[in-house]
Amino acid sequence: MKAVLVGIWNRDITREEARESIKELRGLVEALGGTSVGYILQHRNKPDVRYFVGAGKAQELEEVSRGIGADTIVFDDPLTPSQVKNLEKLTGKRVLDRTDLVIEIFSRRARSKEAKLQVELAKLTHELPRLYGKGKDLSRLGGGVGTRGPGEQEAEIRRRVIKRRIHQIREELEEIKKMRRHQRKRREREEVRENLLKVAIVGYTNAGKSTLLKALTGRDTFTADMLFATLDTKTSARTVSPDLKILFTDTVGFIKKLPTELIESFKATLEEVTEADIILHVVDISDDRWLDYIQAVKEVLEELSAGDKPTIYVLNKADRIVNSEEEVKHLPHSAFVEGRSVVVSAHRRWNIEKLLEEISSLGRKVLEESLVKEV
Fold first, then answer.
1. Confidence of residue 139 (pLDDT cuts 50, 70, 90)
2. Closest of 182, 314, 300, 304 to residue 248, by C-alpha
């Protein structure tokens, strides 16, 4: 994929914010193995009905993409089926939006049966309204296609196939959920008795979650300065005392503008979050927009029904702001977040022991409350 990126800015989003969002979009393209060869921003109060951008800017897109040899145009916001159709007809290029990219990333990286089904459901739900007008260039979906009626268009047949598959997936997911509910109840009783604390590490993508997991447990994990560097979840245990063992799970990074179709997929892929006793919310405080990213993650946690779980904010990458661990205690960032927080540098292991003490203190309180409920 060789892509030109497109976004708009207006009274709700500044030009600088639009550039930051385009930067993240570039990271999504790279996560799929593609490259971006440039971007175009336009000031518009509202998207154009036909092309999202104005007609003149759409024509410019055709000229630019042709001139630099791009094969794909990626928009930073959701497009309607008619906008995709009109843009592809005008430019002769494949047209995608942010939702397409994120769904494709999860489609490639899903591992468990439940996660794969959820992502397939999101993909089909997103594809369904885009069928009309595509003609024979649509990819084959496979499966048992029903009898073609007289004069019935190919898009209608495929629409019926997709609806049937969506219904089938939902039934399979419901069966999986029932089975998991029974397993979870039995497992929770055992974990309370064993004093096993489940801690989920969450945060905006590239906040340093994998590095923190390594600092907390010693587990060597792949880290890189890129979006979704480690999409797969990783779990590692650490015994902090004879009466307390902590199970840490590193999860996929969150992003802004999370596609609606993927909320259910996140529930499957991030089941560790919904089942965790404590959430470590990792934040890159060296990023100027760290407070905005906290809010973005909190909104996703709410969607996952995990917004009210006990949380510790891990204010990471302090080494990019100060030169020594001694200076960390003078940083004011904790004053800007509600609840428990610890300023750390996972890379240099600053304040990691203090973070473990905070986790242990909160963990024992959570386990005691769980034991009381069990009794």
1. very low
2. 314
